[in-house]
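Try this one yourself first.
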């Protein structure tokens, strides 16, 4: 956190201009803060951070990144790798336990649901700039039962899936049916179906749409 009396320099990244304007409006209500740069995709954000010193990053979770590299977690991991001490607050519309835990395992400092941005972003900034982790109210249920051992496991392997389960998820997200996957992998339909169900249970996912979102975010597609 900057010394008393100094301005907190903030970089904002989101591919929706209305969200960026909303963040600026919120920050204007708080003295001692200044937006020093904006980015609308991952490439712009990485270039901006390489040239513009800042004290805090507020970034969207899902926005365009490099072709073939996905967005979301791959970008967060790269940001943390290149800027290990930079406080990062993530704004997101994602709402499932696996991705919430994946973002925390990527060592972000704050998580705020976009629907709660007006209510909770300033709370998150205050917590993060004082060295605390902030998780918005609607996402806290995702980590209430997360033990330190599980946190370590996610940090090492965010997918928490076996190789065979990840393979099934990847093919299913590509549009193959369970029967087609079974034929391609030379497994029984029953086995593939069980591996898909086991993967969804481990990830806290309850719909095929969420499964596709998970596969895309974790680079399984």
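Now uncover the answer:
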């Amino acid at each position: 956190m900057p010394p008393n009396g100094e301005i907190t320099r903030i970089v904002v990244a989101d591919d929706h201009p209305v969200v960026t304007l909303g963040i600026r409006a919120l920050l204007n209500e708080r003295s001692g803060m200044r937006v020093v740069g904006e980015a609308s995709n991952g490439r712009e954000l990485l270039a901006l951070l390489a040239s513009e010193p800042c004290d805090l990053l507020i970034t969207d979770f899902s926005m365009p990144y490099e072709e073939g590299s996905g967005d979301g977690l791959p970008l967060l991991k790269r940001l943390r790798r290149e800027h290990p001490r930079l406080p990062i607050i993530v704004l997101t519309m994602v709402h499932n336990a696996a991705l919430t835990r994946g973002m925390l395992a990527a060592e972000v400092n704050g998580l705020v649901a976009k629907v709660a941005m007006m209510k909770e972003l300033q709370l998150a900034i205050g917590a993060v700039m004082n060295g605390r982790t902030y998780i918005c109210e609607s996402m806290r249920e995702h980590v209430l039962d997360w033990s330190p051992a599980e946190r370590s496991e996610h940090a090492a392997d965010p997918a928490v899936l076996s190789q065979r389960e990840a393979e099934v998820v990847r093919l299913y997200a590509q549009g193959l049916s369970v029967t087609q996957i079974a034929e391609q992998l030379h497994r029984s339909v029953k086995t593939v179906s069980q591996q898909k169900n086991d993967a969804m249970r481990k990830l806290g996912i309850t719909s095929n749409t969420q499964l596709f979102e998970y596969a895309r975010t974790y680079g399984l597609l």
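Discussion: Residues 189-203 form the longest helix (15 residues). The CA atoms of residues 5 and 211 lie 47 Å apart.
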